[in-house]
C-alpha cells in the first residue's frame, strides 16, 4: 500500500489474537492508510520510540500482513473490558481477525472511519464510471 504512495493515517501498536490453539495476543506494529491496514511484527532490537519513521517497513515482505479495505467487510464486536477495547475485523471471505488496544488509542474507530471513506470513494468512482458510459452511449 505504501509503495503506491499512500500516506500513513495512523501508526502504532495493536495486539492481534493468534489463530493457534492457545490464541495468544501478539503485538503488531500497525500502519493505517487510506487503502487498508499493514500488520508488521515489531522489531525486537529497538524500542518503538526509537524506530526511524520509514515510508516502507524494513522487514521482509513475507512477515507483513496487509488487510486491504477492498477485502474488508466490517469492523465490529467492540467491547470494552478493563483498559482494553476488543474488536473484530471481518474480511469479505468471512475470516474474522480479533484485535485489542488501549481504550484511549481509538484504533477501532480509526480503522472503521478509513474503511467507510474508502468504500465511499469506490462507490463515487463506480457512479462516475457508469455516468460516463451512459453519456458516451447517448452520443450519436
UniProtKB/TrEMBL annotation:
Residues 41-53 have a biased composition (Low complexity). One of its GO terms (biological process) is positive regulation of apoptotic process. One of its GO terms (cellular component) is nucleus. GO terms for molecular function: phosphatidylinositol phosphate binding. It comes from the Eukaryota. Residues 8-118 form the PH domain. Residues 41-60 are annotated as: Disordered. It is found in: Cytoplasm. Its main location: cytoplasm. Keywords: Cytoplasm. SMART domains: PH. PANTHER family: PLECKSTRIN HOMOLOGY-LIKE DOMAIN FAMILY A MEMBER 1, PLECKSTRIN HOMOLOGY-LIKE DOMAIN, PQ-RICH PROTEIN. This is PHLA1 protein. The gene is Phlda1.
Amino acid at each position: 500500500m505504501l509503495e503506491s504512495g499512500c500516506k500513513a493515517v495512523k501508526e502504532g501498536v495493536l495486539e492481534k489474537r493468534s489463530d493457534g490453539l492457545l490464541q495468544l495476543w501478539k503485538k503488531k506494529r500497525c500502519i493505517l492508510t487510506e487503502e487498508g491496514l499493514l500488520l508488521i511484527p515489531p522489531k525486537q532490537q529497538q524500542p518503538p520510540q526509537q524506530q526511524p519513521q520509514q515510508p516502507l517497513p524494513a522487514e521482509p515482505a513475507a512477515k507483513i500482513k496487509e488487510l486491504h479495505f477492498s477485502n474488508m467487510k466490517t469492523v465490529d464486536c467492540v467491547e470494552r473490558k478493563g483498559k482494553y477495547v476488543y474488536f473484530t475485523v471481518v474480511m469479505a471471505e468471512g475470516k474474522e481477525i480479533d484485535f485489542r488496544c488501549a481504550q484511549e488509542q481509538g484504533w477501532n474507530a480509526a480503522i472503521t472511519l478509513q474503511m467507510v471513506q474508502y468504500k465511499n470513494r469506490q462507490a463515487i468512482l463506480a457512479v462516475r464510471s457508469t455516468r460516463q458510459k451512459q453519456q458516451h452511449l447517448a452520443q450519436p
